[in-house]
Amino acid sequence: MKKKKDRLQTLDVVTRLLSRFGIRILIYAALAVLFYVGITRAYGFGYSVFTSDPVAVEPGADIEVTITQDMTPEDIAQLLKEKGVIRDEEVFRVQEFLYTSERVPIYPGTYTLNNSWSAEEIIGVMTEEPETVEETTALAGATDAAQAPTATSGETAPEDSLEDGT
Q: Do residues 116 and 57 make contact, with C-beta atoms less than 8 angstroms apart?
């Protein structure tokens, strides 16, 4: 009887060790799978950020998009996704973070974007500083002023009188 009891105790100890060892193996295996999945997804996301495929092949389609002053990067990414200019909002938000700054922001305005462009090209167009109304008006005024003497000089009487000989 003593032998049977010792045998059961030994079997109990071995079973406990194996079950603890088995649980550890299961935990390590689960962690390895999670680690692998995490690494592959992180790699895929990083790859998408730096080598994003356009939505369409060349020549693509031109799509008009209006960016307002109060739009956040999240709003811009959502709008571009809805319009079919980009594939993934999260990838575009990271790209926007990488390619813009306070000195090179995305300016409000209406843009004609092509869905065959890369995110870098799209962001490049939206970060070009637009001509302001003041600059346009000043340039137009300067051009009108430069052209004004020419237009009025042809109508002046002294030149006409010289041609007539008077």
A: yes
The tokens of 161 are what? 């009188």
Closest-CA residue to 93 (of 111, 126, 116, 119):
119
Residue pLDDT, tens place only, 15-52? 877 777 778 888 889 999 999 999 999 998 888 888 87
The amino acid present at 48, given as its one-letter code, is: S
Read off the pLDDT of residues 90-149 as tens digits, 9 standing for 90 and up: 998 998 888 888 788 888 888 999 988 988 888 889 988 777 555 444 444 444 444 444
| CA dist 163 → 61, 91, 154, 156, 157 (Å) | 58, 72, 12, 12, 10
Q: Which residues pair with 111 in a beta bridge?
A: 65
CA gap 106, 144 in Å, rounded: 32
Kindly list the distances between the CA atom of residue 80 and the CA atoms of 2, 16, 22, 39, 144, in Å, as whole numbers in the listed order.
79, 58, 50, 28, 39
Amino acid letter, residue 17: L
Q: Is the pTM of this model over 0.85?
A: no
